[in-house]
Amino acid sequence: MNDVAARILLRLSKAGDFLSGEELCREFCITRSAVWKHIKLLRAEGYHVDAVTGIGYRLTSLTGRPVEAEVAPFLTVRRFGRSILYHEVTPSTNILAKSLASDGLPEGCVVVADAQTGGRGRMGRTWVSPAGVNLYFSLILRPEVPSIRVPQLTLLVAAAIHQALGTVVPGIAPMVKWPNDILIKGRKVCGVLCEMQSEPDFTHFVVVGVGINVNQSEMPSELQDSATSLFLETGRLVSRPELLASFLNHFEPLYDAWLLEEDLGFILPYLERYSLLQSKQVTIDQLKRTVSGTVSGIARGGELMLDAADGQTTLISSGEAHLQKRTL
Ligand code: BTN
User: Fold this and answer.
1) Based on the domain organization, do 252 and 307 belong to the same domain?
2) Which member of 71, 228, 284, 286 has the greatest number of CB atoms within 10 A?
3) Do 257 and 313 reside in the same domain of the chain?
């Protein structure tokens, strides 16, 4: 969709009623035939737009794509998501958002794609990103904090996603798996990949990349044991625009609170309550070693607190956690 059509769509969606062709011509500085051309384009994209001679145009149905015009009606926050750059397909919204952030795109802008051809996960993995069903987005942040605090954002984002799922899809009992996953009944439904450009004392920007399996009706066979979608768990289609807006509505106030605080202390009770690993025996694969123990909590800095058999507690700041199989 071109930029003018997208802006006309946003205008019609905000109006919620008829807008005259004359008004649209004036607002977008285009001719009547150009307005008509864009309306036909919107119809071709699946939007229903009434056209009544002498009265104007009215949007009567949306498509469920996570575009700005469809997300905006659900937004209650002021900064995040007020600008959404939507792409039908892109290699990776994180890659695109990093390049746009380097060019100066402000905090709060969101890059969304309907499909990714090179979706990236943590530890060099790929993120399977088929078209038309899921959410793939990257939010640009410019926190004025030392870069050492930035990894805490991953858990803060996970908390906001958890809250959004509770709001939009109640009853699915999602759990947060430190440091960046959301699981339902042991299967992953969402992953977070935060990337930053920084110097020790200064963070230029952070790109918060989120992938949520929303309406995918089948998982590739190699992922069937480990991944799921909201549709597979509930049998119901979930509105992608509403879920994206709900995440932003929950995340903006958490982020503002986090900027004022020293650490994650204010959200720890929530994170520990919904932590999949809490009080569990786990093995953590790190780059150069593997450590095991019982999880006794999450530290204020976002590290996992791991108690060894000798009672010593270690703070783990990175790695991939695996639940140990229970032995009888
Ligand atoms: C993980 O669990 O390993 C993190 C997955 C993050 C996937 C999202 S999809 C949107 C954004 N763009 C990417 O290329 N990756 C993130």
Assistant:
1) no
2) 71
3) no
